[in-house]
Fold this protein.
Amino acid sequence: MDPEDKFLETLRRKKRDDLHLRFFEENGEIQSIISPIFTLFSGKKRISPYRNTYCGKAECVYDEDELVSRFKQSGLSSFVTFICHTCRKQIQLAKFCFDEALEEMIEE
Ligand SMILES: [Zn+2]
């Protein structure tokens, strides 16, 4: 299997439907969060949404293609870290999880 397929397989296996809950836990006063369903990277294409567990904002959503592109740019390493374009925190490529809850909302 080539490294890109292996990376994708690992990425897709990490699915969670509770990734957004901590934003409510951190701030008991909020009743809803807004998450983008397009990204600058994806343009108008429907995204496959991923979140990083170290990200600081509900708006931090990444498309699968963007993660694959970063994987390639990093010399095929999933341990590369980079600065999130939204919350500016340092995050690691390996710490992304597929956001099932957001995916369901996009489908509707
Ligand atoms: Zn972020």
Remarks:
- The beta strands are 15-16, 49-52, 62-63, 81-83, 90-92, 96-99.
- The chain has a mean pLDDT of 92.
- Residues 55-57, 60, 84, 86-87, 89 surround zinc ion (CB under 6 Å).
- Residues 22 and 28 are 10 Å apart (CA to CA).
